[in-house]
Design brief:
Elements: H1 7-10, E1 13-16, H2 32-37, H3 39-45, E2 49-52, H4 80-92, E3 96-101, E4 105-107, H5 111-116, E5 130-131, E6 152-155, E7 160-163, E8 170-172, H6 178-193, E9 198-201, H7 243-254, E10 261-264, H8 270-273, E11 286-287, H9 291-294, H10 300-313, E12 321-323, H11 332-336, H12 338-350, E13 354-358, H13 378-382, H14 423-427, H15 433-446, H16 448-452, E14 454-458, E15 465-472, E16 475-482, E17 488-490, E18 498-504, E19 511-514, E20 518-520, E21 524-530
Parallel strand pairs: 1-2, 1-13, 2-3, 3-9, 9-10, 10-11, 12-13
Antiparallel strand pairs: 4-8, 5-7, 6-7, 14-15, 15-16, 16-21, 17-20, 18-19, 18-21
Helix pairs in contact: 6-7, 12-15
Bound molecules: 1-deoxynojirimycin.
């Protein structure tokens, strides 16, 4: 039965931010040999696929999302040979490795941009997006960088502005130029041929801009005091209809190889997001679904509506996926608090679709306050108070100085709670978040219903409750999440008379239950295997 599913449907993806996972040489920055040392851990945890945020040569203006060479490894992280070794060891364990493709922009230090800015008639000029200054000498239009400030910088030598939707050191490539497309496709082939199993593709929905670069209209929701870059609607600099033809081309490149995957980074509401599966499922395999991250209010009603909306909107054959956190978002445990983060983990690992876990969330790692003088994230520098360093701090492995992450000085401060919140400590604690995550992953792997079964909401009259049934063959798994602050007792005998507790968020409940009077504590979740009648 499993053979009819692709690995990227049945596996769980774990995002590693390489700078922060494991340092092997004492320079305070994580690296590839470090990741290799931790494969045992990942395997124990129950991870089948790892995605590495960029490891390519880069001036690190945006910590690798400013690529200066698409087909090599930055010496800070190791060598190409060390990457090959990591991939081969992961493969031996049945684990897949995904890299992060950053096609929207390159570093301004990439030889393509260096050539492009050297003169207006350089053959690489048209690989980027250049415009004359506005009549007043200012930028060609009103577009804003996601990090803050204008999305245009003036190149004094040639007298034109170049576009950068992010940092000035991240120049947007011109995807209307076929040579650019081929160059990136060749980079994809380079990695596929080396055995890379797929790519997470950075800001894929921004790849192509409106051909006339019109001004963006104001966002009526924006209020003074909010970051300036949210003042305008991003109508003309993202989500253009032509992007789908480009994604189809990328998909064709992936399809030249056996069983590879493309995961697109796309922050869009569900009805827009699902278009990225492609009209004939010829888009990305998984358009990242960040709707649990962007959800305004975290409550049972909003989450049920979201899940049902998503299930309805998916195109036939489109495989769902869910995300709770990543290197751009405040950590889930900080957003929701520890008890609710456990519930969220149960939700993530029992919903239908491929889950992506962000490193450290399995420990309930929290955002680390970063003093102003230690802020290094370009967004945090340009838009104080909105930096992403807090969610990128070193993995907390053990209670030794350096948290088992480094013997040197870590590039970002280690969380104050590392001596108590760490892998070693939590592996020994049967009720820890880590053991809960491990248990849920094991359960998901062993259960066809959880792994690939159908989804159906179970109606209840309790407003703070979200319950659903996952089914495959004769197997039925009931998930009940009490998101409220008070205990509840409920009758779900419509689902079946009895069941066995397979997991509880507190990791302290086991045994048989009758479904006509199930008791849940405040902020408690249960996974119940329904007994066959
Ligand atoms: C999205 C990445 O996740 C983020 O970290 C980065 O800053 C921007 N894209 C620009 O590449």
């Amino acid at each position: 039965m499993k053979a009819s599913y692709h690995w990227w449907q049945t596996d769980v993806v774990y995002q590693i931010y390489p700078r922060s996972f494991q340092d092997s040489n004492g320079d305070g920055i994580g690296d590839l040999p470090g990741i290799r040392q931790r494969l045992d851990y990942l395997q124990w945890l129950g991870i089948d696929a790892i995605w590495l945020s960029p490891i390519f040569p880069s001036p690190m203006a945006d910590f690798g999302y400013d690529v200066a060479n698409y087909v090599d490894v930055d010496p800070m992280f190791g060598t190409l040979a060390e990457l090959d070794q990591l991939v081969s060891e992961a493969h031996q364990r049945g684990m897949r490795v995904l890299l992060d493709l950053v096609p929207n922009h390159s570093s301004d230090e990439h030889p393509w941009f260096v050539a492009a800015r050297s003169s207006r008639d350089n053959p690489y000029r048209d690989w980027y997006i250049w415009r004359d200054p506005a009549p007043d000498g200012g930028p060609p239009n009103n577009w804003l960088s996601h990090f803050g400030g204008p999305a245009w910088s003036l190149d004094h030598t040639t007298g034109q502005y170049y576009l950068h939707l992010f940092d000035p050191k991240q120049a947007d490539l011109n995807w209307r130029n076929p040579a650019v497309r081929q160059a990136i496709y060749d980079a994809m082939r380079f990695w596929f041929a080396r055995g890379i199993d797929g790519f997470r593709i950075d800001v894929i929905w921004m790849l192509i801009k409106h051909p006339d670069l019109p001004d963006n209209p104001p966002d009526p929701q924006w209020k003074p005091g909010q970051p300036e870059q949210h003042r305008l609607l991003r109508r003309h600099d993202q989500h253009q209809p032509e992007v789908h033809a480009i994604i189809r081309e990328m998909r064709m490149v992936a399809d030249e190889y056996q069983d590879r995957v493309l995961i697109g980074e796309i922050y869009l509401p569900i009805d827009d997001l699902v278009a990225y599966y492609g009209e004939n499922l010829d888009g990305v395999h998984l358009p990242f679904n960040f709707n649990l991250v962007t959800l305004g209010e975290w409550n049972a009603h909003a989450i049920r509506e979201l899940v049902e909306h998503y299930e309805r909107a998916l195109p036939p054959g489109g495989w769902p996926n869910w995300v709770l956190g990543n290197h751009d978002q405040p950590r889930i445990a900080s957003r929701l608090g520890q008890p609710m983060a456990r519930l969220a983990q149960m939700l993530l690992l029992t919903l239908r679709g491929t889950p992506t876990l962000y490193y450290g969330d399995e420990l309930g790692m929290e955002d680390v306050p970063i003093p102003a003088e230690l802020v290094v994230d370009p967004q945090g520098i340009r838009t104080p108070g909105h930096g992403r360093d807090p969610e990128r701090t070193p993995m907390q492995w053990d209670a030794t100085p350096g948290a088992g992450f480094t013997t040197g000085t870590p590039w970002l401060p280690i969380a104050a709670d590392y001596a108590t919140r760490n892998v070693t400590r939590q592996q020994d604690d049967p009720q820890s978040m880590l053991v809960l995550t491990h248990h849920l992953l094991e359960l998901r792997q062993a259960s066809a219903a959880l792994n690939r079964g159908s989804y159906a909401t179970v109606a209840t009259s309790e407003p703070d409750l979200f319950a659903y049934l996952r089914r495959a063959g004769g197997e039925q798994i009931l998930v009940i999440l009490n998101m409220g602050a008070t205990p509840v007792t409920l009758d779900l005998s419509s689902v079946g008379p009895t069941g066995t507790i397979a997991a509880s968020t507190g990791m302290q409940r086991t045994g048989h239950v009758t479904l006509d009077a199930i008791m849940l504590d405040a902020v408690e979740g249960l996974v119940i295997a329904i007994d066959e009648e």
